[in-house]
Amino acid sequence: MDSKTVSAPDAGPDTKLLDPKLHLDGLPDLLGFHLRLAHVAMYRDFTTALADLDLTQKQCATLQLIGANPGVSQVDLAGTLGTDRATMMAMVDRLEQRNLLVRRRSLADRRRQELNLTDDGEAMLTRARHAIAEHERHFTSRFTAAELKALTNALSRIHQQV
């Protein structure tokens, strides 16, 4: 395989993102191309790792943020996760229907909805954290500690500039 052909990174034995016989022109020289392939590989693995829990990445992040910030508002969650209010409200509705969180009006500001995890939500978050840790190890084990720190710092410089 030459530098202009790429096979799918960790996409699984029967899944191909790219046909390795396909000439990729200048794509392998583009940072965004590699970021996209890395994202797809990690997304697929995450989805598989959490399949038994029936949680998406954003639902998982929502539970984590609520667990770390009891009483957080939907607006603050939406801003942190980069999603619009309507999408966040729909996600909170789904998690509330599953009895993973409870939504209450703030006593300090009646316009504000405060979110807290239920006991079921705490248990689900614990299970999700274990699955996520295994998922992360699947990828972080490919790097030395110094490489991982450099990669994380480099990626942070990309997303913090946007």
CATH domain class name of the largest domain: Mainly Alpha
Helix content: 40-55%
The strands making up the biggest β-sheet line up spatially as 1-3-2
CATH homology-level superfamily of the largest domain:
Winged helix-like DNA-binding domain superfamily/Winged helix DNA-binding domain
Q: Which term fits the overall shape?
A: elongated
Identify low-pLDDT runs.
Answer: 5-16
Question: How would you characterize this protein structure?
Answer:
This protein has a three-stranded antiparallel β-sheet. The chain folds into two domains: 1-49, no CATH class; 55-162, Winged helix-like DNA-binding domain superfamily/Winged helix DNA-binding domain (Arc Repressor Mutant, subunit A). Helix content is 55%, strand content 7%. It is mainly α. The protein is elongated.
Please write out the topology.
Blueprint (H helix, E strand, L loop, with lengths): L30 H19 L7 H12 L3 E2 H8 L3 H13 L3 E5 L7 E5 L1 H22 L4 H15 L3
Helix pairs in contact: 1-5, 2-5, 3-4
Task: Sum up the structure in keywords.
Arc Repressor Mutant, subunit A, 3 strands, three-stranded antiparallel beta sheet, mainly alpha, 162 residues
